[in-house]
Amino acid sequence: xxxxxxxxxxxxxxxxxxxxxxxxxxxxxxxxxxxxxxxxxxxxxxxxxxxxxxxxxxxxxxxxxxxxxxxxxxxxxxxxxxxxxxxxxxxxxxxxxxxxxxxxxxxxxxxxxxxxxxxx
Length: 120
Fold this sequence. Notes:
Elements lengths: L1 H4 L6 E3 L15 H5 L3 E3 L12 H14 L3 E3 L7 H11 L4 E4 L5 H4 L3 E3 L7
Parallel strand pairs: 1-2, 3-4, 4-5
């Protein structure tokens, strides 16, 4: 995912679901890091060396807390994604999602984003 985002010129923040202590940066990420376009953050202590579902959930809450607003492409009913979105909403975070029937559980409290038709 980071590789796709780094094709452009915008800055990118990457937050792995593990500690970054002792992490080796992949060669394809090095140019963006050196240029100051890639910031790598982690809320985890060095002992958390492996990604787990629990760490991923904690990382997602951390990123949500830092964000000015949050875009969620899809949040299925009763999903962890929907639970996170509800928690963020309850903390006053503006939420955005795609205006699609698959997001019915989410559309009641998230702003709808229209996908461009490519004709603009």
